[in-house]
Structures are given as C-alpha cells and as structure tokens.
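Hi there. Long-time user, first ticket. I'm pasting a complex I've been working with (about 722 residues overall). I'd like to know whether the download I got is complete or cut off, because the file seemed smaller than I expected. Thanks.
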Amino acid sequence: MKHSDKVNNSAVGLDVGTSRICLAQRVGEDYQYETQLNAFVTIPFSKITEGVLKKEKVPHTVTGAEIVVHGNESDRFADLLNVETRRTMDKGVLNPAESDSLGMLRKIVESLLDPVKHRQKLCFTVPAAPLGAEDNLTYHEATLRQILTEMGYEVKSINEGLAVVYSELEDSNYTGIGISCGGGLCNVCVSYLSVPVLSFSIPKAGDYIDSSAATITGERANRVRIVKEDSFHFNGFFADKLQQVLGVYYDEMIQSLVQGMKQAFANARNLPKSNRPLPIVLSGGTAMPEGFRDRFEKALGEAELPFATADIRVAADPLHASAKGALVAALADL
Amino acid sequence: MPLIPRSIIERKAGQIVDPVARLRYLQRTAGIFHPRLQPAIPRRRRRLPALGLALLLTCLLIPGYKASNKAAHAKAVFSFGSLTRVSAASADVFPDVWLVDKSKDFETYSNGLRIDDRSTAPNQKRLFYPVYQRGAIDPQQPEWRSEPAGIVYHTTESDQARFTVDQNARLKRIGKAVIGVVQQNHSYHFLIDRFGQIFRIVPEEDVANHAGYSVWSDNSVIFVNLNSSFLGVAFETETHQGDLPSATPAQIHAARILTEMLRNKYHIPESNCVTHAQVSVNPDNMLVGYHTDWAANFPFFEIGLSDNYNVPPPSIYAFGFDYDPVFIHATGVRLWQGFALAEDQMQSQAAARGVSVSRYRVTLQKKYKEILAALKAAAIANDNQNET
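Hi, the file is complete. Here it is re-exported in full:
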C-alpha cells in the first residue's frame, strides 16, 4: 500500500533501518505499516524475466544488461540465485562500499512513498553516534533529507531510540529507555518527559550475528538471516550447529549492548537522577526471538547498572515501533 | 510566577488520552522548560524564580558584558616566549585534586590551590543548557546538560602597571578595581590577578557572562553560546597593540592548579579547554573571532594542557563561519593551522555532497541561524510563560 492510498495523509513516519525501511501512517485511531527490505540484488537481463517481474509486480529497475530487484523480493531472488543481497546501508548509515547505495535507497523509498504536491510532514529515523567513536552521520542524514524533500515532504529527523520511546512509553509520559536492536546497530536513547538526555549506538546487531555465524558455518549471511528470523529462539537445545552458533553470537551482542549501556551511563554526567525506576523497551527485528527479553534482563542484572529498572519489555510490535514513533513525532509537530 | 513542579506536569500529561497530544504537551513544557523540571537539581535551584530562568535563557543569546576590547586589540601579536606546540603529558587523565579545607572566605585544595571567595557575586543559576549532536544537528531537538563541560580562558584587557616592586601599590589598586568591575557584571567565574591570586567571581553553579556568541565542540556534541556550558577563567592582563598579552609566572601557576581542580571536579576533557578567541563568533557578519583574547600564544603547555590552537574550530566546519584578515593577523600561525584544517574539512564535506563550498557554507550557516532562532524562541516562550 502506497502512501497515497492512505486515508489520513497528514503526516508519515519512516524508519530507515540498515535492514528494512518501514513506513507508518495513522488511519483513524489505528496505525498502518508497510515495510521493504533495504536491499537489492542484480540478475541478468532477459525479456522473459522482466515480463515475469512486471506481471508479479516485483519492484525492479532495468540497467543495461542487468535487472536490479530491490526491496522485499531481493531476499528471495538472492536465495534462489545463491548470492548475497547488496545493501544500501551498513551500520546504520549509507553503505560506503556500495557504489549504487544512494540510487537504490531512493528507489526503495519511492516504492513506499509517492511524491506529494503539498508539503506534508514526514519524520524519519537516524541512528545515534556510535559509543566511543566519531560519528559520521551528517552525510547520511543530509542525503535522506534531500531525497525526501525532493519528493515534496517537510522533513525532520528523530533519533531511532527516541522513536521507540515515543512509540511505546506513553504510559510513563515518555520517560524511560528505548532500545532498537536492528540490523546494523543497537540504538539506545534515554528520554525524560519526552526530552532525549542520552543517546548512543552499539555497532553490534543483527548483521554482526549473521556475518559471524556465516563465517563459522560456511553459510551465506543472507541465508543465516533467513534461518534466524524464521526459527531461532533462546532457551532451547539445538542439534543444529547454525542455531547453536546464533545463540553464541546473540549472547555476545547482548553483552556488548549491556556493557555499552554501563559505559555510557558511567560517563554521562548530566542524567536526571530520578527516584523512579526507568522502564526499558526493546524493539527491532533482532529483539524478536523468544527469550531475548529474559536474556537481556539477566545480563542487565549482572552488569549492575547505576539505575533501577522498572518494566523491561519487548515492544508490542517490534518491527514497527521505530516507524510508529517517528509518525507520533511527526503528528506532534503538526 | 512560580515554576511548574514536575509532578503537576506529569499529572496533567497523564490526563491527556491521545498519545500525540500528550507528546505535544510534554514537548511544549518539558522541552522548553526542561531545565526546571529536573529532579536532579537541588531544591534551591528548583526554586529559582522564573525571572532568573528568563535571564538564563536570555544570556544564552546575548553576548554578555566583557571587559576585553576586541577592536582595539585585533592586531595584537604575541611574544610569550617560545612555546613549543606539544601536548601535555597528562592527556585526559584527570588530576587527583581534593578540597582540603573550606572557610567562609577561602577554599584550599590538595594541589596548593587557594580560592578567595570574598568577591563572589551569585548570578543566575546554571540549570540545563542545550547541546547538539555532531553530525546530526537538529535545532529543534537538542540534548540537555547541566554540568560545566569546559573552560574558556580570557584576558580582562584592563589597565596594567609595570610588574615591579615600586608599582606594588598601583598593582593592588588596579587589581581591586578590576575585581569590582567583573563582579558587578558577573563577567567570569574566576579571576586570576597579576600576583596569581584566584578570586571566585561567579559560583560555578551559576552562569557568567563571559563567552557571548560562541561555538565549540567535543567529540560528540556541539555547544552554542558557552555562557552556560563553559566556565570562564580570566587573566588580569592586557593585549597591547603590536605587542602580546602577557601573564606573570604566578598567574600561569595559578591557572595550572585552578585548571587541575576544575578538570578533576567536572571531568573536563583537555579538548574543551580553549581560549575566547577560539570560540567567539559574530552572527551579524558570520565571522569568527569577535573577541580576540588569547588569539595567540596562550600557554597551554605551561598550564598542563594540550595545545588546542590547531583544533579545527567547529564554528567554521559545522556552521560555515568565515574569518577576516584582521583576525588572521591577530592569531598567528598556531590558530591558523586549525582554521586551515576546518576549511579542508568543510571542502571535503562539500565535495562529498557534490556542492560548491560556498553553497555548502550557506547550508551550514542556515543551520546555525536555526539554532539561534530556536534559542530565541525558547527565551520568548519562557518570557511569555512568565508574564502569564
């Protein structure tokens, strides 16, 4: 469903993740989402293939002797052709190693959004600076801003972790910690009464798990991701080596996240000192496996963070929480 | 009007059913008036009258009184001796300094620092100030901080007597007069007189009117208008035209132990210890160096700091400020290196975006003006709130 098909077109939220791009819009009191895989794959051109793609309404572009399939279907084609999908983004920002990242990102965004004639509010997510490293977000954000502005939108950005807070922590007046565990990064934001007071990212997330497990098992990372999303869960016993390896790297990722939080909180000098425990919300595709919350809570307890936590929960709709938060921010800006 | 207690805002927000409306309400109240809502603030700060907060916000926008005179000393060059560009050995290791004794009039610290509190003049409280994420600057969504993040070093540009024993009475008389002026105007947090005596003028938890329009950045965030975010330390000295600002050995020693204490107390990185000339900007003509104190030859090494003159000024690469020949003449080669790096950085950023440097500079300047506008809007909103 494209944006123009929606009933309420006052504002839109766009979660631009390393792995997926998700559009959110409010329809009456409900939220509706559409997601595209932020990836593409090239296949040799033939008229038959092109005809099939057109017939099946698979988003694609013909470039000389190649057909570029982008978005959701790229996954399936890559699996069929036994190749890796190519990614427009890496670790939360435009992929510097991918020459066609900008063009493909534009195509994928255009497959979700139609250009608008009257300036319409759009809020898109951006990652926070990596913990302990120089940030390199300017180009990424400016590029997205340009793409979306050229499509006619009135654009603002929101930190991805804050978007999770806006999506999930209404009950605590948007006070708490939002964590988005995505493909390229885990984004963390501490919000106090809707104001972001600390945000950072950790460069170990879903892609790290996939590539590490792929190296060990000899599988393609794309294949690992599909298996991970389809069947992986904690608290189980696996004869399957891939599942075992996934468990190991998942644990490592969780430890990195928790240690990163510990470090960030230790170095932060300006956090509000609240007597109330802070709620934590986990979101993103990487936080979805069954048992993830429990494993995270256990690691958090062992780390002895300098604040008390209240409810730790996974977002009601982890894949769409950031997009919903971006939409809430856009609507609040009206 | 009394401040709105956090509990009232939370209760009122809780009554708003629609999540978007609730967020909008909180952003309006907790966003603009965020500082007053923080539970971390000691009770006496939370009781700060609204007028004080208005003044706090206003002083973020208006260059405060400054004893230094920019125009008269713009051509200053410097002969502070041959200072080698070296990094201090104690790079970002925070010196272990503790308070040994405190009386009504003095504080004594373990490194020999002695602060005279008899001239202290409280000012508006430092509550929270906005900072902007490097690389993802959003004028509408700053982060908020409350602790001092750095130190800006100044010169008082006051009259000077010859530093000899026969001038002792005059030196003391001038020093006393300078204290009176900076105290009245809340010009700095600390003043170091020519004998190396350190006077606390404005308490560190208050704002001093020392930096005016100014920009600096650390590795993660950009600070705009440093009155609230940085502490001001002034040397009683003057930059003679064609000559140099000079500091006595006693002043250098005092600055060193004062800096040690402040860095330890607030965990201030060396990279955030800078001179006023490095941070000062003029939004009217979009040029750096509105104030030129310590534009050259600040004794970073002697004070135990890394030489920050070669750090690219964020005013140039993040907000597109330019510089003029007068300021270049005043700075000398050390600060120039930072300018060149900032220009290189800006050219690379422009090239990465496929736009000309001039066009990119306009984009950056627009971002800066948006931030200033946001700060002004916050101040106006606060004024309106106070009036109602």
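A couple of notes from our side: The longest helix of chain A spans residues 241-267. Chain A touches chain B through 39 residues (CB under 8 Å).
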